[in-house]
């Protein structure tokens, strides 16, 4: 499974905005703080703005702010805003996937993996990530590692 650079940059940018709510932040300052290519981040912000996850304001006092409370924005929502489909196989959704013969159970595994990832990312908010980065509160277990077998 691969997490797109677009999704990674989008989540990092929103966490940066959530950590500094006192003023709007410029795309340039977020890119510099997170080590993200400015031009790429600018296109990511267009998609985040279209999804209502950020607001922008022009001018010398301008910049970006979160479009909603950070505690109401989930990581799953952010990834969907910039990547579209949550998970796919060769560009196709997993819902209709079917294999013949001995591999017939494999699509159920892929769908279960998608559901587990969606549940995890849907349970973690930008506010929790910003709080964890700044030593703030977060829900118990939301970001705890999964024990290995």
Automatic annotation (TrEMBL):
It comes from Streptomyces hoynatensis. One of its GO terms (cellular component) is cytosol. Pfam families: Rrf2 (PF02082). This is Rrf2 family transcriptional regulator. InterPro entries: TR_Rrf2-type_CS, Tscrpt_reg_Rrf2, WH-like_DNA-bd_sf, WH_DNA-bd_sf. NCBIfam families: rrf2_super. GO terms for molecular function: DNA binding; DNA-binding transcription factor activity. PROSITE patterns: HTH_RRF2_1, HTH_RRF2_2. Keywords: DNA-binding. The keyword DNA-binding applies.
